[in-house]
Each structure stands twice: as C-alpha cells, then as structure tokens.
Amino acid sequence: MTNTLPLDQQLCFALYSVSNAVVRLYRPLLQPFDLTYPQYVVLLALWQQDNISLGALGRVTFFDSGTLTPLVKKLEQKKLLQRVASENDERVKQVVLTGEGRALQQKVSGVMQALRCQVAMDDQQLVQLRQLAQQLQQQVSAAASCTLAIVDKL
User: How big is the chain by its Cα radius of gyration, in Å?
Assistant: First the structure.
C-alpha cells in the first residue's frame, strides 16, 4: 500500500495544471504580437525596469540561464531588445529595450484585460490568489536547500 495522494489531490498537479491553462489562455492573445508567454514575461520585466543585467533579469523572471538566454536571443532577433556590454564590466551583459520594444508595451496593453474577462473570479479573489502564490514561491525558494538535503538521503 502506498501513501501517495491521488493525482487530483496533489498540490503540485493543481498548480501545474492551472499554470498550463492560464498560459493557453494567453496564447491567442499574444499571437497577434508574435510573442510566446515566456517572451511576454521577459518584456513585462523590462517594461518595469529596463537596462538590467541578464542575471538580474533571471532573478526577476525566475528563468534560469538555459531558459533565459534563448528567450533574450529570440527577442533580440525580433528587434525588441538588445544585449550590450555593461559600462562597469564588459563581461556582464545588460538587456535594453529598443524603441520597438518600448512601443510594444502600449500595443499589448489590452492583453491583461482580455485575460481578466476570461477568469470568473472577482478582484479580491485574484489578489488573494496572487499573494498566496507569491508566498508559496518564496517558501519553495527558501526550502530548496532543505529539499536537496532530503533527496541526498533517499
């Protein structure tokens, strides 16, 4: 006999499935702008704070370098951003929006409202859900070293 919870009672599966469902909702909204959801996340971060290092961008978006680098390269090919050497350290690359990248912010401004129309939760529920998700993310990040120690003992 196993102590494993059924799939529909697993928190990890609930989070995974809702994440996939939300990304699927974004797909047709971002498609006219030739953006994927991860590319949109990178742009959202840069619209909030432009001209940041790749490392800082990774920390803000929670993308590891193996995920972030191809995203940045693709957005650079689309002429929405560019990578430039830092003035302080040429080894550090800064990510900077182009004029086209800045202009795109206004063009995609309706995406969030269009998504909001598809979610049948009131504003208070959405704020609470976001806060719980952020709290869980912080706790999971803090617990990562503990998890590695447990896995080593298995």
Answer: 19
What's the rounded Cα separation, in Å, for the pair 39 and 30?
Answer: 10
* Token pair recorded at residue 7: 């799939």
Instruction: Return the ∠ at Cα 78 (arms to 73 and 83), rounded to 5°.
Output: 40
Residues sharing a CB contact under 8 Å with residue 117, sequence separation 6 or more, in sequence order: none
Backbone angles phi and psi of 98, in degrees to 5: -85, 175
CA distance 33 to 117: 19
**CATH code reported for the domain at 14-120:** 1.10.10.10
Of residues 78, 98, 67, the one with CA closest to residue 34: 78
pLDDT in tens, 10-46: 999 999 999 999 999 999 999 999 999 999 999 999 9
Helix (H) or strand (E) holding 60: helix 54-61
